[in-house]
Amino acid sequence: MSDLKSLETDLMAKIDAAGDGGALEDIRVHALGKKGVVSERMKTLGKMSPEERKEMGPVLNGLKTRIGEAIEAKKSALEEAALDARLATEKVDVTLPVRPEAKGKIHPVSQVTEEIVAIFSAMGFDVAEGPDIEDDFYNFTALNFPEDHPARDMHDTFFFEPKEDGSRRLLRTHTSPVQIRTMMSEKPPIRIIIPGRVYRCDSDQTHTPVFHQVEGLVIDRESHMGHLKGTLEAFAKTYFEVDSVKTRFRPHFFPFTEPSAEMDIGYERVGNEIRIGQGDDWMEILGCGMVHPNVLKNCGLDPDEYQGFAWGMGVDRLAMLKYGIPDLRDFFAADARWLEHYGFDPLDQPNLAVGLSR
Amino acid sequence: MKFTLSWLKEHLETDASLDEIVETMIAVGLEVESIDNPADRLAAFTIGEVLEAEKHPDADKLKLCKVATKDGEMQIVCGAPNARKGIMIAYAPVGAYVPGIDLTLKKAKIRGVESFGMMCSAREMELGDDHDGIIEAPAEAKVGDPVAHWLGADDPVIDFEVTPNRPDTNGVDGVARDLAAAGLGKLIAPAPKAVKGAFESPQKIALHFPKDAEDACPCFAGRYVKGVKNGPSPEWLQKRLRAIGLRPINALVDITNYMSYDRARPLHVYDADKLKGEIHARLGRKDERFLALDGKTYDVDETMTVIADDNAVLGFGGVMGGEDTGSTEETVNVFIECAYFDPRRTAKTGRATGINSDARYRFERGVDPNFILPGLEMATRLVLDFCGGTPSEIELAGAIPAFEKTVLYPTTEVLRLTGMDVKPEGQERILSALGFDVRKSDPWQVDVPSWRPDIEGKADLVEEVARIVGYDHLPTATLPLANAVEAPKLTPAQERRGRVRRALAARGSLEAVTWSFTDERHAALFRSSNELKAAGLYLANPIASDLGVMRPSILPNLIAALQRNADRGRADLALFEVAPAYESDQPEGHKDAAAGARRIAPARHWSTASHTEDGVFFAKADALAALEAAGAPVASLQTASPGPDYFHPGRSGYLQLGPGKRLAAFGEIHPRVLKAMDADGPVYGFEIALDAIPAGRRKAVKTRAALDASDLLPVKRDFAFVCDADVAAEALIRAVRAGDKALIADVTLFDVYQGEGVPDGKKSLAVEVTLQPREKTLTDEEIETVSKRIIAQAEKTTGAQLRH
């Protein structure tokens, strides 16, 4: 029995001293292998008398189990140590910067147009569009511009080289031609907004030859200036994302509306910042009115049967006001610094459910 | 249009404050642009009294004054020769801003003597040019009174925008009429009293127009006044003219300016002794020229209405008179012209000559035809009052143009169009106050006053009523919705643009918005000048020579923008634009396009060497991402090479759904194009014809097809082929796929190799093929069979051999 004790002590000491998986395996073979010292002892059990076996069986089995467990435990410990050692060599400086990825941005004009579309689509407006290159009829005549109106002048409107028949096409000066195209091709009720590029021969601090407009048109049998007011007030409040907005409607003149108005909104200037919805100053943001009976007639609609309103506003200007962008000309300069600064993350899609903007 | 408050009050009896007047003007549609109250600017200046004025101990020209002021007795050093004991002066305290010398006063020591504040001259307060001495206020002024009050500088000037439909508000009386109608007071606009003529006018007038141009000047009235003595006009008139920014000239000229602003009635006064024979209105003739009042000589043509005597053209009718026949200080006999000129011709002549005169402004908007003779009477009266003389009888050529307009007006129109319920009595009161004559038949018959050429129909009368009631009274109504939740509003084409934008931005590109036009030299690199001309894309009046043609592609603008950014040190940049490009001047030539361009700087990052992917494939990836976002069937796309000729011929291609079904082009921009645009290369770009993408409809059935995923492990096998160098990789991939359409789930090309081990003119392409078993694990024989088919297909369609 005592030699078993010393055998166990000896094996345990060897296991403990094993420096790596190979040495440990050697010990396992030495002890528990087919001809291992413990295995040889186990073989002796067969030759023993039942009494002896009854006594020695548990002792030898106990020894085998303990040695086996000790080897397993040592194996795990060695693996852990080996892993720790490997990990120690794999250390990196995690403060190193990641690979830079270019960040794309959406232009404010696109973003704000989508904001406007989100608002008016919730109010039941479709989005209509039309060509930039128009003719005199759609851009002026049908809209009740008198024949010699100054807007028809080359000083104000871009014209193309005249054709052989003397006619000349032009760049639309507003998106109103799409109103005409819609009224001529669709039966009321009509409820549309018209975003798009428009053109005027103007280039200075506050004017660019290309800018963006959104016009609106409602034609049915009952919409009046009260609906115009309600619609545009709701727009202003939602667009500027303020709890309330002060508006003021003033009589004005446009050839294509009668009665006509301009809408002002109340604001306050705090430093360089414009705060909409508070303060006592007024700023004009759009022109509007009831569609002129002549315009309805020009589109084949009876002004005693149909009525409605229209308005037009500058997208670029609305973007400048909401987001505090100082200079209109920068919108068209494609300066990366400006685009990165004033542009919008492509994930930020205007949506009334989450709010139009961050 | 400018006027002063006191001027308005000559036409409006009112107790209203300036603020109320301004607010009401805005409310009725007279858009006030500015109010300049000189008294505000002069608020810091008060009356002081010089109690003592001694010589400065150390300066001969300076005086040491003791001055009684609102701040108590102050010592002020003053250099004005008229500074003396007893006078009432304009005192500016320490801290006051003196506009004429642009200085905020500080306590000063002048030649060793302290001085507290300043006694000011007219120029220092910007009240005039006088700087000979300090201002002396009347003796009855009291210390501490506002200076503005005693100097007559407390008359606010109101400037407002005259909308083109309201020529009547070019006169102060027209403004007053609107304000009176809005309940601000009583209109004072008495009809001018007739002046009896003492003799027949020696000056004869006539109209000489061809039949088809008689409307150019249907009426020409005039009057001779003899023995006038011209000189400065009365102080009150000069003050008024100066207040609104006009320079007083002499009484006769000042009268015409006064009439223009007081009654919107332009006139002209000739020195009758400088006229030769009959004066008449007629169309101009080619080769005529004349020297206008502005000192410039103008060419005349047949479209213009001129006034002429037997000698020469004297003036452009309704636009500007001549230098040689105008009145001067020496003028003794005058002829006053009061006529009606056609708005359209006046505007045209004005635009052709570039003359912007008060007369043109009024005639081109329409003057009151019924005020021709009253206006002449009023002007005669003013001439007699200011210059004396004896008037002739009135000379009249032509006839007063008839102005008769009646509008049939159902009073329910106001409610129908505005939602405001205005009682008929209220409507009648407003219309009458504005000068309309209301006859209450059913519907009402409303006669339009002769000064309102803008009123055509009932909608115009609705506006009149609504604006005077005030738009503040409009109800706030909500448009009813047809559905509790609105249906989607964007068309597929509109939605597509938004998705393309966000897909490209998500790939790191910045969205730009550039002009729709471009430099014609740049445009010609993308489409020939002849084609651009034939398509009608050249502007007749570009704003700049380098913005002369509509862009046939967005790319030239993006390339130019990339270069501008590069010039600022931004070498590594991707820009895109989703916007129209123009194929022709017709509606169908307006093309929905998307384009992108990028310059790639070698990547410098600690984790890799400066390895940079070929930009061509950046551009291709951009194009594919955009096409996918746009809903194009990307899996069915073929690549064809080369792309359009503005791309590198060996490094560009089209993405197409078949021959003639091109959706996009991509590649490296042709170096020749970049050179012509002064742009550094290489630049990689793409452009997409969004219109050409088959319209992706929203699916009617939202149920997705059932997931077809096998639990069996996919098998991967690599194949390396050797083929001719010009075989398209896409062709080989397609051939490999065709090996077994059911079993092959994916083919990935992972290596392209030319060099040692591969014969000249050949290349090696290596692909990994993924086989996805469906029912049971593949046996070695089955895999072998598929491999053979793959190799056979590759050989058959591309000539490729398996590399050994």
Category by helix and strand content of chain A: alpha+beta
What's the rounded overall pLDDT mean of chain B?
Answer: 92
Low-confidence stretches of chain A: none
Question: Briefly, what CATH class of the largest domain in chain A?
Answer: Alpha Beta
Strand order of the largest sheet of chain B: 29-32-33-37-36-35-34
- Calculate the terminal CA-CA distance of chain A, rounded to whole Å: 82 Å
Tell me the name of the CATH homologous superfamily of the largest domain in chain A: Bira Bifunctional Protein, Domain 2
* CATH secondary-structure class of the largest domain in chain B: Alpha Beta
Q: What is the count of distinct domains of chain B? A: 6
Q: Spell out the CATH superfamily of the largest domain in chain B.
A: Bira Bifunctional Protein, Domain 2
Strand segment tally of chain A: 10
Average pLDDT, all residues of chain A: 92
Largest sheet of chain B: 7 strands, mixed
Beta-strand content estimate of chain A? 15-25%
CATH architecture of the largest domain in chain A: 2-Layer Sandwich
Helix coverage percent of chain B: 25-40%
- What is the CATH third-level topology name of the largest domain in chain B? BirA Bifunctional Protein, domain 2
> What share of residues of chain A is helical?
25-40%
Oligomer: heterodimer
Number of strands of chain B: 41
CATH architecture descriptor text of the largest domain in chain B: 2-Layer Sandwich
Task: Kindly list the characteristics that best describe this protein.
heterodimer, A: 358 residues, alpha+beta, BirA Bifunctional Protein, domain 2, two-stranded antiparallel ribbon, B: 804 residues, Phenylalanyl-tRNA Synthetase, Chain B, domain 1, OB fold (Dihydrolipoamide Acetyltransferase, E2P), Phenylalanyl-tRNA Synthetase, Chain B, domain 3, 6 domains, 7-stranded mixed β-sheet, 25% helix, elongated
Strand and helix layout:
The complex is a heterodimer of chains A (358) and B (804).
Chain A: H1 2-17, H2 21-32, H3 37-43, H4 50-89, H5 108-122, E1 126-127, E2 133-134, H6 136-139, E3 170-171, H7 176-185, E4 190-199, E5 210-220, H8 225-240, E6 247-251, E7 257-270, E8 273-276, E9 281-291, H9 293-298, E10 307-314, H10 315-323, H11 336-342
Parallel strand pairs in A: 1-4
Antiparallel strand pairs in A: 2-3, 4-5, 5-10, 6-7, 7-8, 7-9, 9-10
Chain B: E1 2-4, H1 5-9, E2 12-13, H2 18-28, E3 31-36, H3 38-41, E4 46-55, E5 63-69, E6 72-78, E7 88-92, E8 97-98, E9 103-104, E10 108-110, E11 113-115, E12 118-119, H4 147-150, E13 157-161, H5 172-181, E14 186-187, E15 205-208, E16 219-226, H6 235-243, H7 251-263, E17 268-271, E18 279-283, E19 289-291, E20 297-299, E21 305-308, E22 313-316, E23 320-321, E24 334-340, H8 343-353, H9 358-363, H10 372-387, E25 390-398, E26 406-409, H11 413-418, H12 424-433, E27 437-439, E28 444-447, H13 458-469, H14 492-506, E29 510-511, E30 517-518, H15 520-523, H16 529-534, E31 549-550, H17 555-567, E32 573-582, E33 590-599, H18 615-629, E34 638-640, E35 647-656, E36 662-669, H19 671-676, E37 684-689, E38 715-724, H20 729-738, E39 744-753, E40 762-771, H21 780-798, E41 801-802
Helix pairs in contact in B: 5-12, 7-10, 14-18, 20-21
